[in-house]
Design brief:
By secondary structure, this protein is an alpha/beta fold. The protein has helices at about 5-10, 15-30, 45-60, 70-85, 100-110, 130-135, 155-160, 185-195, 250-265, 270-280, 280-310, 335-345, 370-384; strands spanning about 35, 95, 115-120, 140-145, 165-170, 200-205, 225-230, 245, 320-325, 345-350, 350, 360-365. It has two domains: about 5-45 and about 285-384, Aspartate Aminotransferase, domain 1; about 60-280, Aspartate Aminotransferase, domain 2 (3-Layer(aba) Sandwich), CATH 3.40.640.10. α5 crosses α9.
């Protein structure tokens, strides 16, 4: 049999998906497992989004869409950025993709040459380093500390930038830490990028899930070098609908679309039509987000208090729907600790290994409050 490429042999599977799959397997065996692994809201999307999808079916909007996204959705994205973030884009500066992951993949492929470096903050989302490596680049992590709320130190970021650095990656609110970067930190990071003539890729999918602090778009400080990565999955609970979008400099977005046109072409037609409703029907969508954000905050408070009470040190996140907990009292190896929680307590969390977070694990509270309370009971019983 012919061999596979070395590039694919080196590629790791997502640990988030691996632990989520293992939890699902145990459930299929009749074992009651509480999965706190996937970053997927447990809410159904708002009704007006469903209605828009039904309308698209009735109108027969089921054909191929333009590779860069439908004109209606790109216009809605421009309106969203203007209305909510004070950013001015034209539709040809917007690309719609099959999820935020594809936006990022297109971007790394568009700017990285072999050996180029991309600076990112650790703990980091598991997908960033593999995507950088698939583009021939090198991921350069800057460590952040739980006691600092996982906020990066600007001097440490500056020290990580070298002659081969091409991209500075910002993710606020953060997956996996939930850190929300204050305005002065975002500005400082963007100014560092400008000083070294770097691209800024700003992953802002969790913009609307903030409990303390304020959201600051990176493009506010340097739109000419910033790609904003966004999407419909988190705030609108449209995960399986697979709509992501990016906005940035026209030359970069054009290059990203050139790649996308040869890989997947346009994203799902019905989902794009539904996302237009999510973006444009502002009052209905805001009411939905207010309700879900209140529920997430309640779950976060319960989870953080419970884990800390049991000695699993867990900083309070200010955004997203994740916590990072220290599991070294269970086992110094975070993978073994997560396995023990899964096999003994029947609670699934994602070990910090692929997040570049040794000794820690990520718990998602995108699940019911009842599940959060039950998970805490099981962990407490296991520790006892």
């Amino acid at each position: 049999m012919p061999d596979l490429s070395q590039r694919i042999k080196r590629l790791k599977a997502s640990s988030t998906i691996a632990f989520n799959t293992r939890a699902a397997e145990l459930r299929r065996q009749g074992i009651d497992v509480i999965a706190m692994t996937a970053g997927e809201p447990d809410f159904q999307p708002p009704e007006h989004v469903f209605e828009a999808a039904r309308d698209a079916l009735k109108r027969g909007l089921t054909k191929y869409t333009p590779s860069e996204g439908t004109p209606e959705l790109r216009e809605a994205v421009c309106a969203k950025f203007a209305r909510e973030n004070g950013l001015s884009y034209e539709p040809d500066q917007v690309i719609v993709s099959t999820g935020g992951k594809q936006v990022l993949y297109n971007a790394f492929q568009a700017v990285l040459e072999p050996g180029d470096e991309a600076v990112l903050m650790a703990p980091t989302w598991v997908t960033y380093p593999p995507q950088i490596e698939l583009a021939g680049g090198v991921a350069v992590p800057v460590r952040t500390r739980p006691e600092d709320g996982f906020l990066p130190d600007l001097d440490a970021v500056a020290a990580a930038i070298g002659p081969k650095t091409k991209v500075l990656l910002i993710n606020s609110p953060s997956n996996p830490t939930g850190a929300v970067y204050p305005p002065e930190l975002v500005q400082g990071l963007v100014e560092l990028a400008a000083e070294h003539d770097l691209w800024v890729f700003s992953d802002e999918l969790y913009e609307h899930l903030i409990y303390e602090g304020t959201f600051t778009p990176a493009a506010r400080f340097a739109p000419e070098r910033t790609l904003t990565v966004h999407g419909a999955s988190k705030a609108y609970a449209l995960t399986g609908w697979r709509i992501g979008y990016g906005a940035g400099p026209r030359e970069l977005v054009t290059a990203m679309n050139r790649l996308q046109s040869q890989v997947t072409s346009g994203a799902n037609a019905l989902a794009q039509h539904a996302t237009v409703a999510a973006l444009n029907e502002v009052e209905k969508t805001r009411a939905f987000m207010d309700t879900t954000r209140k529920a997430y905050r309640e779950r976060r408070d319960a989870l953080v208090e419970g884990l800390n009470r049991m000695g699993l040190t867990t900083p309070e996140p200010h955004g997203a729907f994740y916590v990072m907990a220290d599991l070294t009292t269970i086992d110094p190896d975070e993978g073994e600790a997560a396995l023990k929680l899964l096999e003994k307590a029947r609670v699934a969390a994602v070990p910090g290994t692929d997040f570049l977070a040794p000794g820690q694990a990520r718990f998602s509270y995108a699940t019911s409050l009842d599940n959060v309370h039950e998970a805490l009971k099981r962990i407490e019983a296991f520790l006892a």
